[in-house]
Write a structure and sequence with these properties.
With 372 residues, the protein is α/β, with parallel strands linked by helices. The chain has nine helices and eleven strands. The strands form three sheets. The chain has a seven-stranded mixed beta sheet, sandwiched between helices. It has a two-stranded antiparallel sheet with strand order 1-2. The longest helix has 21 residues, at 11-31. 45% of the residues are buried.
């Protein structure tokens, strides 16, 4: 028979407990580099392997980390779930701990009809003055930082392109298998390794659009979320680092995704606008910060470029853009001064809508890089 020890709660014991909690808090502050008197202070980590790129530093004392995580409402052992708290991004995928169902065979249905993709011919890009004069930029700020979008949009561009033969823009995909609604797809998460149907097809159009303006692009289609979804951001960071080493002139990194949300009745989020007389998927620019204590000195530079892209898109294609989503997480955006995560549509949009959207946002990106 198991014996139980009675614990008498006294004022002395409560005092000891309070002291212990304060000691643990002080240790946590040291371990995580927290400085309460300096809200913008960050912990600097020199070894990328010691960092969970989804947004939380590793610690040998997982009891402290799990306690903090439980208070904040996410699972410390599943860092992808950190993103659930403040946005619908990736929410459907984060609702399960299992690897989403992936379609690895080519679809048997008829191919999706090609949309009328925007081309660079005869398109007048907004001027520098028009871009920085815009006043209708909207933001969803999930951080403690106060940002002046007008000032960020007006500041000089830090991603000056040489327009030479060496790639200056890297397009990649952390969640490479994400795809869109349609009978050719199966599974709640709409995921496939077929590059003709997943976000790689969308990335191709953005790459082609930028190249039409003389901007050299490398499109890396490495799969990071299959067969394991967990750890996709860590693997994606390895790919980014490898590409930056191979192509040292890269100044801009675009991580192309699609959003996802499943409502209680089973319907899926569709974000669309009528552009040039037809439905197209809306676009959301997601920007990370150093709010969670990870090294990220470039987040304001990234946000500055994003405001220019947002402004150009609003001028050229009113209604195309959702508000900029400024996040506490870093999402690997510390790699360059021009790193942005771009959500093209959602799991309720069609591939054709996403492809049309890719051409439009490609034009806006070009406008920002060339005239911003």
């Amino acid at each position: 028979m198991k014996r139980f020890k009675a614990v008498i709660i006294t004022k002395k014991n409560l005092t000891k407990a309070a002291i212990a909690i304060l000691a643990v808090s002080a240790c946590a502050g040291v371990c995580f580099g927290i400085k309460h008197s300096e809200p913008e202070a960050v912990a600097v980590f020199s070894d990328a392997e010691t960092i969970l790129n989804e947004g939380m530093p590793r610690s040998d004392d997982f009891s402290i980390k799990k306690f903090i995580a439980s208070v904040l409402g996410f699972d410390a052992d599943k860092p992808e779930t950190i993103i659930e708290g403040s946005s619908e991004i990736f929410k459907a995928a984060a609702e399960t701990t299992e690897t989403p169902e992936i379609v690895t065979d080519s679809p048997t249905e008829q191919p999706v009809a090609e949309p009328n993709e925007p081309v660079t011919d005869d398109i007048e890009l907004p001027s520098h003055d028009e871009i920085i004069a815009a006043t209708n930029i909207q933001i969803k700020n999930a951080t403690q930082y106060s940002v002046d979008l007008g000032a960020l949009c007006a500041q000089p561009l830090e991603t000056i392109l040489d327009k030479g033969d060496s790639p200056e823009v890297l397009i990649m995909h952390t969640h490479t298998t994400e795809c869109y609604a349609g009978d050719e797809m199966s599974g709640e998460g709409e995921r496939t390794t077929n590059e003709s149907y997943n976000v790689c097809a969308v990335g191709d159009i953005i790459a082609e659009t930028l190249e039409g303006y003389g901007i050299s692009v490398i499109h890396d289609k490495t799969i990071h979320d299959y067969p394991s979804y967990q750890g996709a951001y860590t693997r994606a960071m390895n790919t980014i680092n490898s590409d930056l080493e191979t192509y040292p002139n890269v100044k801009v990194v675009l991580d192309i995704h699609r959003d996802a949300y499943v409502y209680s009745d089973g319907t899926k989020l569709r974000v669309a606008a009528n552009v040039n007389g037809s439905d197209t998927a809306q676009v959301m620019l997601v920007l990370g910060t150093d709010s969670m204590g990870l090294y990220h000195p470039y987040w304001r530079s990234n946000l500055s470029l994003a405001t220019k892209i947002q402004s150009a898109a609003e001028i050229m294609y009113p209604g195309l853009m959702r508000p900029i989503d400024l996040r506490s997480e870093r999402f690997n955006m510390h790699a360059t001064k021009g790193s942005i995560l771009i959500e093209i549509g959602s799991n309720g949009n069609s591939l054709a809508e996403a492809k049309s959207s890719a051409g439009y946002i490609g034009n806006a990106i070009a406008a920002a890089l060339l005239n911003g």
